[in-house]
Amino acid sequence: MKVMKTIIEKIDKNQIDEQIIEQAGDILQQGGLVAFPTETVYGLGANALDEEAAKKTYAAKGRPSDNPLIVHIADVGVLDLIVTHVPEKAQKIMEKFWPGPLTLIFNKNENVPLGTTGGLSTVAIRMPVHEIALALIRAGGGFISAPSANTSGRPSPTSAEHVAEDLDGKIDMIIDGGSVEIGVESTILDMTVDPPMILRPGAVTKEMLEEVIGEVAVDQTLLVDDAKEAPKAPGMKYRHYAPKAQLMIVEGETGEAVKAIKQIAYEQTRLGYKVGIIATNETIDSYTTGIIKSIGARSNENTIAKNLYKVLREFDEEEVSYIYSEAFDTEGIGYAIMNRLDKAAGHHTIQAGDITKLQKYRRILFVSNSDNCRGPMAAELLRNESLNKEYAIESRGMVVLFPEPANQKAEAIMRSQQMTLEKHVATQLEEADLDDDTLVLTFDEKRKWKIISDYENVKNVYTLNEYIDDERFVPSSHGQPLVVYGENFELMRELIKKLADKLNEEG
Ligand code: AMP
Ligand code: MG
């Protein structure tokens, strides 16, 4: 429900419009709410020293009020005004990582209201590096609480459009500074314990911190499904970052995960569900069924962090029922990515191998001599069958001298049955065609034995009739009149139907 008019202003971070910053600063000083860009995600700013402003923040976000806010500052010098003590290790860390995507927890002093810290005696503090954020923090009085500027429970906003989707009409102003750099929230490091403990992973990793201060602990509840203890950062207990659809992470070696996701997407789609797939630049072309989006490049996981929430929001708009995501390496920023994905999925993960073992073949290859008549015909007939599982259905020839089109009489018969081989091009069988996922079917014994003797380690080669346990061979129609092509087509159709039934029975 819109209850107020939200001002939306664009600012170029390389040429900051001071007037807009001043206006936004005034709003903050008067207890209002201003959303603004930081390098991590967009924040919902309010005066951190004003208890009433904190209340408004919780109300606008619909956030449980036991979930404390992070106080953003623009100068390290002001720290002493809000904390009781700055440990030596914290000094070192701040010198190295501030301004930047790292939040530190200190014991607060009486200047920070409990309304801002969710009732805790500690306070989380960050100094962002984003120029617009820094200018606004100064203009707003120097202490700006800023949780992510989304409705509680939705993916964090990485653009001003995302903020407007959630908060237009509920806050005073949105500063649009374009897309954020990092895309996942700051690392949170608790400096009130020794060794300091990571409560939320982010762009500043454990390894980076340990280089500066030695041992750093990690809250063990972060990546665990059935943790007995509550997480130490109160906000980490909520299933936030969540898309509307049920998200499932498919773990395992990437090639295996792709197979598993394809398999599930095909079957879920047949059941009538709208399915989303979170792919990567490297794997996107492997998928065929579902709404497929790349989240970035595996070769540069920073791109994945940056797109993560955007992709989850896009799937909300597509109104898919299920989203299946590949899993990512947990090195560097990858740990933060997997932490957020895992939370978005409500810890739903499956092992790719548990899915892929349920489907024996993924590819059916019909092999004839010249790949211009029986092979392509069988392949097209099978493609027209209703199959419970997804198969790549193709044909190859043992002796293909040039890439000719399908035989004309075969094409005429197919046309009379509302099918066509017009896209077919005869293709030579290669060793690489014969992997474990492929079922190879020939039309006679001779070709079967030739494949078995010509290639090494071929496992799944059968004649079509042997495979479906039927005595009838489909003979070559080569050089025969059209009626013979027609008769052979009818026989082929019967056998392919039996093949489809067998595949559907066996999986
Ligand atoms: P957000 O503002 O959406 O990035 O969320 C802030 C996160 O910081 C939440 O997970 C909070 O629980 C956590 N946080 C803020 N203050 C504290 C604190 N004093 N102690 C532990 N966690 C905190
Ligand atoms: Mg948040």
User: Rg to the nearest angstrom?
Assistant: 30 Å
Overall pLDDT score: 95
As for the number of domains, it is 3
CATH topology of the largest domain: DHBP synthase
What's the name of the CATH homologous superfamily of the largest domain? DHBP synthase
CATH hierarchy: architecture of the largest domain = Alpha-Beta Complex
The helix content, as a percent range, equals 25-40%
Main sheet? 11 strands, mixed
Adjacency order of strands in the biggest sheet = 1-8-2-3-7-4-6-5-9-10-11
Shape: elongated
- Beta-strand segment tally: 20
The helix count comes to 15
Question: Structural class of the secondary structure composition?
Answer: alpha/beta
Percent strand equals: 15-25%
Write out the distinct hetero groups bound to the structure.
adenosine monophosphate, magnesium ion
Distance between the termini: 50 Å
Low-confidence stretches: none
Oligomer: single chain
CATH class designation of the largest domain: Alpha Beta
